[in-house]
């Protein structure tokens, strides 16, 4: 019998950020489409919400409405869950002989990687603490590292030797060495689709590389100084680069053309990120401010002030409704992205905070400081929930796994702690 041209195969739940993924067949091809439920709250009227969704989504027919309501209720329960936030030190890994540059988790947190001045990147098993692979081959400091999350089967390393290497997580073998930059690579990122890796360099350019073919796709030229931050949006059609020239550029990934230059900061950019639905960009700068921009038009929406010293890191929560900033003044702040108001001040660290991140659910914030501690905070109130003590030197990196039950911290004491 002839297959119907369009048909829903199944519905998948996405907890962070809340959403339902529709798997359907169209013209014989399997496709997926997300329904984002970023505004879902524990008190949302689910039946009314699903009725609204049904109006705009032909794949959701009367026969599966009950199922959709059930799924949305499950997402609601997840939001209500009270998790035990007490983290305890699980393992200390003496990872490299020379200082660490960066650490990164795969999506589940089962594995993580460390980059070092010793010119290697090491892959670790989180649960056992054992070293799985040493990725050797760079001729200088391995500075920027990443997994191709959510898949996690590939690792990219960017080095002061001006090259980027792509590796197999399973075997530790190097697939490709990407050459072309004329100075150190200091930042890199995979797109979520895991088809490209982007590298940012002290040569003031960024480059896009095709992971399958192992070749350069585009050079993003236009900055007048080093590029130290870059970030793809979730759709993978745009990328932003932040530079020491005080600007952030928005680029079209397909053509490599610059779409907008975000001008307004009065000092070097330290950090830049898209929110989940690709509508906003947040930028942090050494000028002590954080700015919000419309990602589509490139227009300036707000300047978030309050910090007394440089902003060293900024991030959105998963849904893109809150912004967290970390500063050299030893404090972090949380702002509502819509109202632009400061909703919490995270005070207590005795040194500068170099990194800040939300857990996937968005109710906790983690900060890493030069005071040798990391802290866990309540994102809504700004109360410090826990101080993670154990490192003997500055902590420069911190991350949650996707479930939010494991934390990793990287320190200048050459160790990684798993909490």
Automatic annotation (TrEMBL):
<dbReference type="InterPro" id="IPR020472">
    <property type="entry name" value="WD40_PAC1"/>
</dbReference>
<feature type="repeat" description="WD">
    <location>
        <begin position="304"/>
        <end position="345"/>
    </location>
</feature>
<dbReference type="GO" id="GO:0030126">
    <property type="term" value="C:COPI vesicle coat"/>
</dbReference>
<dbReference type="InterPro" id="IPR050844">
    <property type="entry name" value="Coatomer_complex_subunit"/>
</dbReference>
<dbReference type="GO" id="GO:0070286">
    <property type="term" value="P:axonemal dynein complex assembly"/>
</dbReference>
<comment type="function">
    <text>Required for axonemal dynein assembly and ciliary motility in ciliated organs, including Kupffer's vesicle, during embryogenesis. Facilitates the onset of robust cilia motility during development.</text>
</comment>
<dbReference type="GO" id="GO:0007507">
    <property type="term" value="P:heart development"/>
</dbReference>
<keyword id="KW-0853">WD repeat</keyword>
<feature type="repeat" description="WD">
    <location>
        <begin position="220"/>
        <end position="261"/>
    </location>
</feature>
<dbReference type="InterPro" id="IPR001680">
    <property type="entry name" value="WD40_rpt"/>
</dbReference>
<feature type="repeat" description="WD">
    <location>
        <begin position="346"/>
        <end position="387"/>
    </location>
</feature>
<dbReference type="GO" id="GO:0006888">
    <property type="term" value="P:endoplasmic reticulum to Golgi vesicle-mediated transport"/>
</dbReference>
<dbReference type="InterPro" id="IPR036322">
    <property type="entry name" value="WD40_repeat_dom_sf"/>
</dbReference>
<feature type="repeat" description="WD">
    <location>
        <begin position="262"/>
        <end position="303"/>
    </location>
</feature>
<protein>
    <recommendedName>
        <fullName>Dynein assembly factor with WD repeat domains 1</fullName>
    </recommendedName>
</protein>
<dbReference type="InterPro" id="IPR019775">
    <property type="entry name" value="WD40_repeat_CS"/>
</dbReference>
<keyword id="KW-0282">Flagellum</keyword>
<feature type="repeat" description="WD">
    <location>
        <begin position="388"/>
        <end position="419"/>
    </location>
</feature>
<feature type="repeat" description="WD">
    <location>
        <begin position="135"/>
        <end position="177"/>
    </location>
</feature>
<comment type="similarity">
    <text>Belongs to the WD repeat WDR69 family.</text>
</comment>
<dbReference type="GO" id="GO:0006890">
    <property type="term" value="P:retrograde vesicle-mediated transport, Golgi to endoplasmic reticulum"/>
</dbReference>
<feature type="repeat" description="WD">
    <location>
        <begin position="178"/>
        <end position="219"/>
    </location>
</feature>
<dbReference type="InterPro" id="IPR011044">
    <property type="entry name" value="Quino_amine_DH_bsu"/>
</dbReference>
<dbReference type="InterPro" id="IPR015943">
    <property type="entry name" value="WD40/YVTN_repeat-like_dom_sf"/>
</dbReference>
<keyword id="KW-0969">Cilium</keyword>
<dbReference type="Pfam" id="PF00400">
    <property type="entry name" value="WD40"/>
</dbReference>
<dbReference type="GO" id="GO:0006886">
    <property type="term" value="P:intracellular protein transport"/>
</dbReference>
<keyword id="KW-0966">Cell projection</keyword>
<keyword id="KW-0963">Cytoplasm</keyword>
<feature type="repeat" description="WD">
    <location>
        <begin position="93"/>
        <end position="134"/>
    </location>
</feature>
<keyword id="KW-0206">Cytoskeleton</keyword>
<dbReference type="GO" id="GO:0006891">
    <property type="term" value="P:intra-Golgi vesicle-mediated transport"/>
</dbReference>
<dbReference type="GO" id="GO:0007368">
    <property type="term" value="P:determination of left/right symmetry"/>
</dbReference>
<keyword id="KW-0677">Repeat</keyword>
